[in-house]
Design a protein that fits this description.
About 40% of the residues lie in helices and about 15% in strands.
Length: about 400
């Protein structure tokens, strides 16, 4: 991959920012209401579609999504990724990567992303601009005011409003904001049936298109036999950010209770805090049967999936849950919470378990696990990956969407 630094500096950054803000204030309202279509792009099959991907965070799920997006559309699209500098080195991509200075989540961070994105629009001259996650919505709004002829795709990677309780004022406000701003794009990509249903039932603006998430295939997997037949320890695995959303605090509390009842269980943690520090108890992290691995490279992570007997996804909300697809790819069953899109990914007692999100329910479910039952699910998990979550299906749908978009 090739890195380019789009970090703004000093007075130039401030001057550009003021100009952008002034023009955005004048044009944003009319741009939101009506986006005039540009002239159709003239191209041949020999000319790849140039896609600029803009994201505010690239840890965890977004990084996996970018890899699938890049590889599965490589025969007809070239990608450029604009990401925070703190995340750029961790991306295992072959595409060009642009970065911007990341001072942490704040208005200043969005300002730097806006400046870097506007420069990238001029230097890359993309056919399509792909905006990822909620915090790129204001960036898309301003860029639409300046580059009205661009082809814009937006993907929420899980609608933000679903994080809040039904009927709450905060949920209504967030729904109004993201549902309105989503309409600035030419097309909205929803990553799960749950996201698609929520957007349409909440009357979100824009043309919504379902392309369910997927992961690239690899060969490191087992379908039934344990790596070490003499080891009867039940290995659990958590993969993801140690953030409030992911529910790792609930899993740790539940595991500490289960570990008092059975001595044949072990928990592996892959990841680290990214967005918000989850209230992790240090005494639980220091448990002799909890193993921390930090973030792992793709091949190391896949080996960890294959060696696990069960993957746990106790998220409080989830637009999809790439960990589920990655686990099925290795033939490993998954225990998920009953929140967001997760219940729709797992077939109860065939490819895993759906458990109500509470410490008590997790304790009950973990206490009842058996190696024999989990081993019997592995072939069904792999088949589910091949039939539903394979990157070939994702690539075919995404390429068709890109071709239709530039041909309009």
């Amino acid at each position: 991959m090739r890195f380019c630094d789009l970090r703004a500096g000093g007075h130039v950054e401030e001057q550009e920012g003021l100009l952008l803000a002034q023009k955005a204030e004048n044009d944003a309202r009319s741009s939101m209401r009506t986006v005039e279509p540009s002239q159709p792009c003239a191209r041949t099959d020999a000319v790849p579609i140039k896609v600029l991907n803009i994201c505010e965070t690239a840890k965890g799920g977004p990084a996996s999504y970018f890899l699938v997006l890049e590889r599965s559309t490589a025969d007809m699209a070239t990608h450029v990724f604009l990401v925070p500098d703190a995340h750029a080195q961790d991306l295992e991509l072959e595409s060009e990567i642009l970065d911007f200075r990341d001072p942490g989540r704040s208005f200043r961070r969005l300002f730097r992303l806006l400046i870097a994105a506007s420069r990238a629009m001029r230097t890359v001259e993309p056919d399509v601009v792909f905006f990822h996650s909620t915090f790129t919505l204001p960036i898309m709004l301003v860029l639409r005011a300046f580059f009205a002829s661009g082809r814009f795709i937006y993907c929420a990677h899980g609608w933000a409003a679903e994080r809040y309780g039904k009927g709450t004022a905060k949920r209504r406000l967030v729904s109004l904001i993201e549902g309105t701003l989503a309409g600035i794009s030419d097309v909205v990509v929803n990553i799960s049936q749950t996201d698609q249903l929520y957007a349409t039932s909440s009357h979100y603006l824009g043309r919504h298109h379902l392309i369910e998430n997927a992961v690239l295939d690899v060969t490191c997997r087992r379908t039934g036999n344990r790596v070490n037949a003499d080891d009867k320890t039940l290995d659990l695995l958590f993969v993801g950010r140690f953030d409030y959303q992911k529910g790792v605090d609930l899993l740790l509390e539940a595991f500490s209770r289960v570990a008092l009842m059975r001595d044949d269980i072990r928990l592996h943690l892959v990841g680290a805090p990214v967005v918000t520090q989850s209230p992790l108890a240090m005494r639980e992290l220091e448990h002799p049967r909890i193993v921390e691995h930090g973030w792992l490279k793709a091949d190391q992570l896949q080996a960890r999936y294959a060696e696990a007997d069960l993957v746990i996804v106790p998220s409080r909300w989830e637009g999809f849950g790439l960990v589920v697809a990655e686990s099925f790819r290795a033939g490993t069953p998954v225990m998920v919470s009953d929140r967001g899109a997760l219940p729709g990914l797992v077939e109860q007692s065939r490819t895993g378990f759906v458990v109500p999100l509470s410490v008590g329910d997790l304790v009950k479910a973990l206490s009842a696990l058996s190696l024999e039952e989990l081993a019997g699910m592995r072939r069904a998990c792999r088949r589910t990956y091949e039939e539903r979550f394979h990157s070939d299906r994702f690539g075919a749908q995404m390429k068709q969407l890109l071709q239709d978009l530039v041909a309009r």
